[in-house]
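Meet our chain:
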Amino acid sequence: MPVSVKSSSQASLLRGVQQEPPKAYKHPIESTADIGQGESVAQLEQGLDVLDLNDDEEDLEAPSSFCCPITTELLRDPVVAADGHTYERQHIKEWLQKSDTSPMTNEPMDHKHLIPNLALRAVMEAYFGARSEVVQ
């Protein structure tokens, strides 16, 4: 059944919908393993949702994903540990000196390598930059 189009703007929108998706979207990320940073996809999605909030909310608190689960303090140098969770670098290093288990799950950690969570850091910088605050 043909679609009735009432305006040229509606017609252009429909043409846009009928076009093939950009090449960048032909191979979507299927899992967080595709980007190698544990929970980064979920954090990016949450961060982007937060950026869409009404800017009139002056007293908006930072999302919990911006806080270290060990100390609940705001992340300054977020890193992903072997358990896939993001922590403040200093605090997870101290934890791993005392324990070989995850602070979140208490399961043994496969290794003690820490990967900078650049995606979360970028979302945090955008979030706080939009509110004239600085994340260092």
